[in-house]
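Action item from last meeting closed. Structure (242 res):
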C-alpha cells in the first residue's frame, strides 16, 4: 500500500438491522452486538496502519426515534462495551472522545463517557471519536449558539460569526477534519453525520453490512484513498504549484 494514508477516517457503520434479518436473529437490533467485533477489528487495523484519528457514528439523533427496545439495547451495549474494553483500549493507546448530546440520551452513560475520556486522555496511538446521539445539524447549531452566547454585548455578524470561528468551535472535539469517510451497508448518503467537517472529505462506500466488515475491508478503503487526487476546490495546476 502506498504511504498516502489518511490522517483521519470517519465511518458510518450501517447495515446492522439488515444483517440481523439475514442471519435469522431474534431481533433486528441483535446485529449491533455483532457490530462490536467489526469495531474492534477496524480499531486494530487503524492502530496497525498508524491512522491518527477514527470517528465512528454509533448513534444518531434520528436513531433516538427507533423503538424503546432498540434504543435501550444500544445504550446497554455502549455501557457494557465501555466497561469491558476500557483496559484493552488503554493498552493499545486509544484516546476516546465522545461527541453528541449524550446527556439527553442517558445521564449515566454521559458520566461514564466523561470517566472514559479522563482515563484515556494520556493515550497517544489513536484518537477514537464516538458520535453518540449526534447529528451534524445539531452540532452546527450548537456551535453558532455558543458563539453568540459567549460574546458580551451586541453581536456583529460580520465580526462575530465567520467560517473560521464556527470551524474553531465545532472542531474542538476533533484533531482534524476527516480525509476519508467510509459508509458500509450499500447506501450512498451522509445521513446528518459530521456535515461541517465533511466538506472536502473523500468518500468510500462499501456494500458489506457492518457486522461482516473487518480490517481488510478497511484497508481496501485506505488503498482507494491512497490513489485519490485531492484538489480542495483548486485546479490541478494550482494545487501542484501551491
Ligand atoms: C446502523 O445500522 C447502526 C447503528 C444504528 C448502530 C451502530 C452501533 C454499533 C455497531 C455499536 C458501536 C458501539 C461502540 C461502543 C463503538 P442499522 O440498524 O441502521 O442497519 P440497517 O440499515 O440494516 O437497518
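Sequence:
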Amino acid at each position: 500500500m502506498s504511504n498516502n494514508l489518511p490522517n483521519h477516517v470517519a465511518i458510518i457503520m450501517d447495515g446492522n438491522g439488515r444483517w440481523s434479518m439475514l442471519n435469522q436473529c431474534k431481533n433486528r437490533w441483535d446485529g449491533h452486538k455483532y457490530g462490536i467485533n467489526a469495531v474492534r477489528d477496524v480499531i486494530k487495523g487503524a492502530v496497525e496502519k498508524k491512522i491518527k484519528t477514527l470517528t465512528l457514528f454509533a448513534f444518531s439523533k434520528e436513531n433516538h426515534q427507533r423503538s424503546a427496545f432498540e434504543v435501550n439495547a444500544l445504550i446497554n451495549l455502549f455501557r457494557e462495551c465501555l466497561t469491558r474494553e476500557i483496559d484493552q483500549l488503554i493498552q493499545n493507546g486509544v484516546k476516546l472522545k465522545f461527541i453528541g448530546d449524550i446527556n439527553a440520551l442517558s445521564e449515566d452513560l454521559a458520566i461514564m463517557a466523561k470517566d472514559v475520556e479522563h482515563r484515556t486522555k494520556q493515550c497517544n496511538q489513536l484518537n477514537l471519536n464516538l458520535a453518540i446521539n449526534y447529528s451534524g445539524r445539531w452540532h452546527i447549531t450548537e456551535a453558532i449558539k455558543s458563539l453568540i452566547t459567549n460574546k458580551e454585548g451586541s453581536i456583529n455578524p460580520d465580526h462575530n460569526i465567520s467560517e473560521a470561528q464556527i470551524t474553531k468551535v465545532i472542531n474542538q472535539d476533533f484533531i482534524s477534519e476527516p480525509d476519508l469517510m467510509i459508509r458500509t451497508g450499500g447506501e450512498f448518503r451522509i445521513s446528518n453525520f459530521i456535515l461541517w467537517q465533511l466538506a472536502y472529505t473523500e468518500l468510500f462506500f462499501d456494500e458489506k453490512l457492518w457486522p461482516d466488515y473487518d480490517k481488510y475491508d478497511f484497508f481496501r478503503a485506505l488503498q482507494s484513498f491512497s490513489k485519490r487526487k485531492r484538489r480542495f476546490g483548486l485546479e490541478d495546476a494550482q494545487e501542484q504549484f501551491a
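Note appended to the action item: The beta strands are 8-12, 53-60, 94-99, 126-134, 180-183, 202-205.
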